[in-house]
Amino acid sequence: MSERRFDLDDLLTLMAVLRDPELGCPWDLKQDWDSIVPHTLEEAYEVADAIERRAFDELPGELGDLLFQVVYYSQFGAEEGRFDFHDVVHVLTAKMLRRHPHVFPDGTLASRREGVSAAEVETRQVHSRWESLKAEEREAREARSVLDDVPRTLPALSRAAKLSKRAARVGFDWPDSRGVIAKLREELDEVEAALAEGDAAHAAEEVGDLLFATVNLARTLGADPERCLRATNGKFERRFRQVESGLAEEGVPLTEAGLERMERHWQAAKRRESHPPTSEGESRS
Fold it and tell me: Where is the composition biased (Basic and acidic residues) (predicted)?
């Protein structure tokens, strides 16, 4: 007989035991709302990393780690008499039903749409309805700005993208990407002016403006700035490792190589990426 597969109830029971004042784990008993947040962010990034690497065999474990964070917060809520995991599931399901009237007309699972394919639903109408429902939810929470529920703990690039996207949806935007490019040039000029004045603090502020404008350019291109930068980080790391490898083959310590020698290996790494070998010892012409 095969071993019984654990289910969600088992996971909730495990968490309750870990937090039991007498039988629980000392580390888990020390945790609170604030101490778990860094772990939550880390686990979310590990999920994203596994997906980008197409490491789907690792994904169940990474998703489980992320789910465990939700279970953790739910346990804190239950201990304080605020809410439990089942409340989380209920609130989420109710919200998704409310936001998808084009799929669940009566706002119930039983009312799911039949006879109309997803392709027949007008995408723009769905998007408009989604935003309208989110606006109603913000109003119900007495939010005073379209920016109120953009989390402050998001990575700066992601938060910049969300802030600018929210503003763009109400008309605060450039008509096309050319306007953003002009803004980029303006911000770069302001960085150079601040540097020319020897004002490092002002230059740093202008660099922030330059980054924000770059995020807006990514948005107008339909690109995720976080993904763009992660891809560039990966490219830099890959090429720099080839610089290190090339210098090692020459027997030159990295700290003694000098910029000119390192740049030569860097350019060689770029050429190899542009023209990868088609077979051993052969380059693509």
Answer: 258-285
Last residue of a domain, one of 204, 223, 242: 223
Average confidence (pLDDT) per 10 residues, the chain, 285 residues: 86 97 95 94 91 94 97 98 97 91 85 68 62 70 79 87 92 93 97 97 97 96 91 94 96 95 96 74 38
Contact 175, 183 (CB under 8 A): no
Domain with 117 in it:
109-140
Residue 129 lies in a domain: yes
Q: Which amino acid is at 203?
A: A
Measured CA to CA, the distance from residue 198 to residue 263 in angstroms comes to: 29
Of 185, 207, 223, the residue that ends a domain is: 223
Write down the residue that tokens 């890959």 correspond to.
238
- Which one, of 23, 131, 15, 132, lies nearest residue 73 by Cα? 15
